[in-house]
Design goal:
alpha/beta; Rossmann fold; four-stranded parallel sheet; 6 helices; 4 strands; globular
Length: 158
Amino acid sequence: MPSLKRILFVCMGNICRSPAGENVFRHLAAARGLEQDYFVDSAGTIGYHVGEPPDSRMSAAGEKRGIVFTGHSRQFRIEDFQEFDLIVTMDESNRQGVLQLALGPEAEAKVRPFCSFVTRHPDQEVPDPYYGGEDGFEHVMDLMEDGCEGILREFPAH
């Protein structure tokens, strides 16, 4: 039996980008019949939105693509380094915030920029769509679909 792969998506507030990663990845894994092979979650580097559901505009962008958004915001914690195999950050600020809590090279090695898995877009970071319009949420969804496909390729369930 294959071992469960555990992936955590991290952004600042855990209401837009990281829930998008979590839910897009879950959707893509389920479409391949792999939902039982992955445990996926998301977190934020700040605790401002703890307990809140994903941003309604991000959820709406997902629904247009047949992806249902679930979950509630939580803050990243040191224990996440032990509980997850891969910690994916949406931008450099998020990456630095997570790395500040790492307790050594083994923990640091689990942290990867999300865009390192993106192959069809030139973006180096996932832009925060929170203060923008609908196009920003659609662009984040494009990046999520691209990057989550890359994660599935690089971290196969079997």
